[in-house]
Write a structure and sequence with these properties.
By secondary structure, the chain is mostly helical. It has one domain: Up-down Bundle (Four Helix Bundle (Hemerythrin (Met), subunit A)). The chain is 74% helix and 2% strand. It has a two-stranded parallel sheet. It is globular, with a radius of gyration of 19 Å.
Length: 231
């Protein structure tokens, strides 16, 4: 079996240039070797690795947590690839993948927030008069809101208009890649996790604002009956 047709037009930058280079090889190996693993099985594996990432962040292992997040991102592409290779794609699998992705995303952000909270005292000499523990909780909550709404807005567009957004600034592939980078930096500079939460907020809310700006364009595409990526 060949790699042709395993990628998707909606792939984000990280997915297209990094993740797919690994995931397609893994998927082809599993299918060609006759491994008894279904797309759903791969979805579950990816989910549990994302939970592992969250746990590692909570246990003050940011480097391992970040690497686990990126591994989860790579394997998250394998379920769809295996489904296409074996002609076993289903709506049930697509819905399960979406649900577990959101749970995994939420767990990782909470894990990072827990660790950022533990090191929030390191910021007290930087700017007086601010309770960085409270700030960390607020930033974690906003990062969670931004992440979930990126996924929800994409799902809503597909459901209501049959269109899809091109992942530009804050797709899941980019968010989990940045999580890996945050874990690497936090291994040597723990207080940097607070900046990661802030970056996540800026990226996701900027992307959401951009999508709101494109709603008139979406209406035009629907009226003309055009099926193309919303960029």
């Amino acid at each position: 079996m060949k790699m042709q047709g395993l990628t998707k037009d909606t792939d984000g930058f990280i997915s297209k240039h990094i993740n797919r280079k690994f995931s397609t090889k893994i998927s082809l190996f599993l299918v060609n070797s006759g491994a008894k693993i279904s797309p759903t099985g791969m979805t579950v594996i990816s989910f549990f690795i994302s939970i592992l990432s969250a746990v590692l962040f909570c246990l003050d292992k940011p480097l391992l947590g970040g690497l686990a997040a990126q591994l989860s991102s790579i394997l998250d592409g394998c379920d769809g690839e295996i489904a296409r290779l074996t002609n076993s794609a289903s709506k049930k699998g697509e819905i399960l993948d979406s649900i577990l992705d959101r749970l995994g995303d939420g767990a990782i952000i909470m894990g990072i927030t827990v660790l950022a909270y533990e090191y929030s005292h390191l910021w007290k000499d930087f700017l007086s008069g601010i309770d960085f523990r409270v700030l960390t909780i607020v930033l974690g909550f906003l990062a969670l809101m931004g992440s979930f709404n990126i996924s929800y807005s994409a799902s809503k567009l597909k459901e209501s208009a049959g269109l899809e957004y091109r992942r530009i600034w804050a797709g899941r592939d980019i968010r989990l890649f940045l999580t890996m980078m945050a874990g690497i930096f936090a291994e040597f500079l723990p207080k940097s996790l607070l900046l990661f939460l802030l970056l996540m907020i800026l990226l996701t809310f900027y992307e959401l604002a951009y999508r709101l700006h494109k709603l008139d364009y979406v209406e035009e595409l629907v009226k003309r009956g055009e099926k193309k990526l919303v960029t």
